[in-house]
C-alpha cells in the first residue's frame, strides 16, 4: 500500500538517525532495577540480541548513575537512552553516558517547586547540548502537568498542548535534536493525540507507543491498532511496544514491533476482533526499574486468569507496578491496582479502597468486580456461572 511520507526533520541519537525518510526505529526499556547491574546487563543483552535500535534505562539517583556508568562500559556500542523519572537534577550526570535523555513534563514540578518549568527545562537542555544528547519530551496520560489538566477539560488536548509548549521552549533555546511522545493506554486516544500533534508540529519526530498495553495477545492488538492507523498516515519515527512480560522474554517487544512495521509496509493490516475492548479490558504496565516486587508480572497474569469469568462485562482493570506512575495511571480505571514492595493498593477510580498483601489481593479484587457487576448489570456473577 502507499504509506504517506513522513515530514519530520531528522535527529541524531548517537549513531542512529530517526525522522524524515529514515527507517522507523524500534526500541524498548530495561525492566530491571538499574542498580542490579548483572540483571540489567542481561536485559540489555536480550534486547540487543533481538535488534533493539535504542535501549532505555531508568535513573533516579546517584547510585543509579554509578550503575549506568558501569553498564555503559560493558556496552559501549549500545544506543542508550535514559529516563530521568522525577529527578531532573541528575541530567548533567547521565548526559555524558547516554545518547538521549527523556523527561516527562508532568514530573518537573516534583522537585525545587520554587523554580519555573522553563528553568528546569533549560537545565536539561544545557546538559544535552554539552554532551551531544538528543531529548525526548515524553508526555504520559497518567502524569500530565497539573496546570494543563486544570486548563483543559479534554485530556487529549491537555497532553497535546503540554507537548507543543515544551517544543516551543526547546526551539527558543536553540535546541532542535528532540522528539516527542504522547502515550495513553487507550489506542484511540494515542491515535487522536498523535494526529493532533502532527497537525500542529509536522516537523517534530514522534515516538509512538501504547503505554501499559498489557499482556499478549491483547497488548499486541492494542498496539497494532494505534501503529497501523498512525504509521500508514506518515506519523511515527520510532516505536516502543510495551508488554507485560517476564524479563527473559522482553525481546518479544522488539520482535513484535518489527513484525508490525513489516506488515504495514507490505499492506498486511490485521483485522481487529469483532467487539474487541467492548467487554473486560485489562491494562498492565510493561514493568521497569521502578517495580519494587517482581511478583508484579505474576500478579498481572493471575488477574487476567481470575477475571476470565467476567470478560463480557465492560470493565477496565489496571495493574501497575510502581508508586511513581501507579497512583495516577489507575485513576481512570474502574478498579486499579498499584504494587509496592509488600502490599498492593486497590482503587476504584481515584478512590483508594485499601492496601492488601499479595496473597490477599485477588480475593478482594474479585469481591469488588462482583460488586460492580451487580451494581451495573443487576445480576451477581461468579466464576462458576455459565
How is this structure best summarized?
With 386 residues, the protein is of the alpha/beta class.
Count every beta strand, where a strand is a DSSP E run of 2 or more residues: 15
Principal-axes shape call: globular
Number of domains: 2
Low-confidence stretches: none
Structure description:
This protein is an alpha/beta fold and 386 residues long. The protein folds into 2 domains: 11-265, TIM Barrel; 281-377, Sulfite Reductase Hemoprotein, domain 1 (2-Layer Sandwich). The protein is 37% helix and 18% strand. The protein has helices at 37-49, 62-74, 91-94, 117-130, 146-151, 155-172, 187-200, 218-231, 252-265, 295-306, 326-329, 361-377; strands at residues 11-13, 16-18, 25-29, 54-58, 80-83, 100-103, 134-140, 178-183, 206-208, 238-240, 281-284, 316-320, 335-339, 343-348, 351-357. An 8-stranded parallel barrel has the order 3-4-5-6-7-8-9-10, surrounded by 6 helices. Helix 6 runs parallel beside helix 7, helix 7 packs parallel to helix 8 and helix 8 packs parallel to helix 9 (252-265). The longest helix has 18 residues, at 155-172. The N and C termini lie far apart (44 Å). The relative contact order is 0.11. The mean pLDDT is 91.
Please describe the structure with a list of short key phrases separated by commas or semicolons.
386 residues, alpha/beta, Sulfite Reductase Hemoprotein, domain 1, 8-stranded parallel beta barrel, 5-stranded mixed β-sheet, 15 strands, globular
Amino acid at each position: 500500500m502507499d504509506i504517506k511520507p513522513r515530514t519530520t526533520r531528522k535527529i541524531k541519537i548517537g549513531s542512529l538517525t530517526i525522522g524524515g525518510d529514515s527507517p522507523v526505529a524500534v526500541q524498548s526499556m530495561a525492566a530491571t532495577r538499574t542498580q542490579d547491574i548483572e540483571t540489567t546487563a542481561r536485559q540489555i543483552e536480550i534486547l540487543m540480541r533481538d535488534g533493539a535500535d535504542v535501549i532505555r534505562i531508568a535513573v533516579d539517583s546517584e547510585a543509579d548513575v554509578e550503575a549506568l556508568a558501569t553498564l555503559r562500559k560493558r556496552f559501549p556500542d549500545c544506543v542508550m537512552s535514559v529516563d530521568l523519572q522525577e529527578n531532573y537534577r541528575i541530567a548533567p550526570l547521565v548526559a555524558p553516558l547516554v545518547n538521549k535523555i527523556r523527561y516527562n513534563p508532568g514530573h518537573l514540578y516534583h522537585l525545587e517547586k520554587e523554580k519555573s518549568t522553563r528553568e528546569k527545562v533549560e537545565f536539561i537542555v544545557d546538559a544535552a547540548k554539552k554532551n551531544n544528547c538528543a531529548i525526548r519530551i515524553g508526555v504520559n496520560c497518567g502524569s500530565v502537568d497539573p496546570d494543563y489538566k486544570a486548563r483543559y477539560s479534554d485530556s487529549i488536548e491537555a497532553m497535546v498542548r503540554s507537548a507543543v509548549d515544551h517544543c516551543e521552549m526547546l526551539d527558543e533555546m536553540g535546541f532542535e535534536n528532540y522528539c516527542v511522545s504522547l502515550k495513553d493506554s487507550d489506542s484511540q486516544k494515542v491515535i487522536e493525540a498523535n494526529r493532533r500533534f502532527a497537525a500542529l508540529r509536522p516537523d517534530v519526530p514522534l515516538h509512538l507507543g501504547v503505554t501499559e498495553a498489557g499482556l499478549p495477545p491483547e497488548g499486541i492488538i492494542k498496539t497494532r491498532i494505534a501503529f497501523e492507523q498512525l504509521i500508514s498516515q506518515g506519523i511515527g519515527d520510532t516505536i516502543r511496544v510495551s508488554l507485560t512480560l517476564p524479563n527473559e522474554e522482553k525481546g518479544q517487544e522488539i520482535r513484535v514491533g518489527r513484525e508490525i512495521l513489516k506488515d504495514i509496509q507490505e499492506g498486511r493490516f490485521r483485522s481487529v476482533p469483532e467487539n474487541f475492548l467492548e467487554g473486560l479490558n485489562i491494562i498492565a504496565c510493561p514493568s521497569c526499574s521502578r517495580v519494587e516486587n517482581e511478583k508484579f508480572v505474576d500478579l498481572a497474569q493471575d488477574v487476567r486468569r481470575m477475571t476470565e469469568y467476567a470478560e463480557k462485562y465492560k470493565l477496565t482493570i489496571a495493574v501497575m507496578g510502581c508508586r511513581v506512575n501507579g497512583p495516577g495511571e489507575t485513576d481512570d480505571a474502574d478498579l486499579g491496582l498499584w504494587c509496592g514492595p509488600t502490599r498492593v493498593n486497590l482503587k476504584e477510580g481515584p478512590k483508594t479502597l485499601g492496601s492488601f498483601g499479595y496473597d490477599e489481593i485477588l480475593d478482594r479484587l474479585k469481591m469488588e468486580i462482583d460488586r460492580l457487576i451487580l451494581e451495573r448489570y443487576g445480576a451477581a456473577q461468579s466464576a462458576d456461572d455459565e
